[in-house]
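Sequence decides. Our protein:
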Amino acid sequence: MAITYRNAKVISNEEISKDIYKLVVEDDSEIKAGQFYMLKLNGVTFLPRPISICEKSENKLTFLYAVMGTGTKEYAKLKENDEISLTGPLGNGFDLEKDYKKVALVAGGIGTAPMLELAKKLRKKNANQIIDLYVGFRDEIYLIDELKEYVNEVRISTNTGKHGHKGFVTDILKPENYDTVLCCGPEIMMKKVVDMCKEKNVSIYVSMEKHMACGVGACLVCTCKTKEGNKRTCKDGPIFDGYYVEL
């Protein structure tokens, strides 16, 4: 399967918290909240990286990424007017045709990124909907000011106790207070959230994050287990019903 990459001009690339960068590039594609792009650097041999859409505004596309290894250290060197190769948007995204009713957005760490576009789209669809945000970080927080504009309440936890509740985001979540939970973050956190929702019979949708090489279903690197066998995170997801996927 041929995969076509295109060059996008970098508008900005700034560190917004320790080792967390916000990359803004030019792109005029139509996107859905919860979709992702495959990004790769020109002239280097690193594999492309799947990065969730954080926000789309006119012709500006925003990504958040964490600097964790050699490849992402190279991303951090990007500056205004540089170019990066990308393909997307990819994946199914959140189904905003559904009526989620009273909804909790639950995120952990860099999993907070796709919640911004999701909250914007939910708020645009229904100005009166109850949308609460629960988010957990290790120590420093980010993206909260941007999210506050679109949600009713924000509840924060940090491992160190520097902000909000000291502990895990699952300590402060009460899924029985909501009709639907939409979740993105570390798999161990999402498993706990799914189990909590199942116990209270609450709808739950998760955004799966897997390593992948192509983003279009050809490489089969990103398979995840479901009640119907293995599915491709990139093509069949990354958004799955929490009652369907096996975490």
About this structure: The mean pLDDT is 91. Residues 224 and 230 are 5 Å apart (CA to CA). The longest strand covers residues 6-17.
